Give the backbone structure.
Amino acid sequence: MVSNPHQPLRRRTGGARSGAASPAEVGPGGASAPALQALVREIELLPGIGRKTAERLAYHVLRMPAEDAMRLARAIRDVKENLRHCKTCFSIAEREECSICEDATRDATTICVVEEPRDLYAIEATAAYRGRYHVLLGAFAPLDGVAPSDLTIDALLARIGAGGVKEVILAMNPNFEGDGTALYLREKLKAFPGLRITRIARGVPSGSHLEHVSRAIVSDALEGRREMGD
C-alpha cells in the first residue's frame, strides 16, 4: 500500500534507532534526494555545524509536521525581510530605530559601545544599565582584514559630536581584537574635551565573550568600569 505523499514523514517508533535514517533514505554524501542534499548543504554553512549534525537536522526537518516546518521557514524569511539595523545605534530593529533608541526614559548622556547586537542583549539582561548603546558590528581585526572603516565608528563619532554625551563605556570583548578596538576608540574619543571614557572592569574573563558570561559578572563589570588612561 502506497502512503499518502502529502503525509509528513515522522520518526519510527520501533525497529531502527530513533532518528536514524534507513538505507533507502541515505545515498552518497548522506542524502539521496537533491532537495534533501541542498538542505544539508545549507545547514552545514551555519557556524558550529558539521556534516553529521547537518544531516541529522535535515532529517529532523523532513520528519516534522508540515505546519511546523513551514513555521520555521516563515520565521527565517521574516528575519531576513523584516529586520534591519537601527539607524542610530546599529542594533537590530524592526523599524528605523530600535526600541531602546525610541525609549525617552533612557539616559542619552551615556553610550555603551559593544561589538555585536548579542553583546547588547547580554548587558540588557542584567537590568543594570539604563543608558544608550552603539553597536560597532564587529571588532578591529587586521589579520582578518577588518579595518576601522569597516565598523560603525564614524557614526559613533558623529553621535558624540552632536553633543549631549558625557560618558562612553567601551564594552568590547576582553580579547585581542576587543582590546585593540578599545585602544583605537580611546584615541579617537580624546578629540572630545570633557568626555569621560571608561572600560568595563576585568571581572569578565580574558578571552571570553559577553554573551557567554553570567548576568551577575556582566553587571559587576559595568558597575566597576574604570577610566581609560594613556
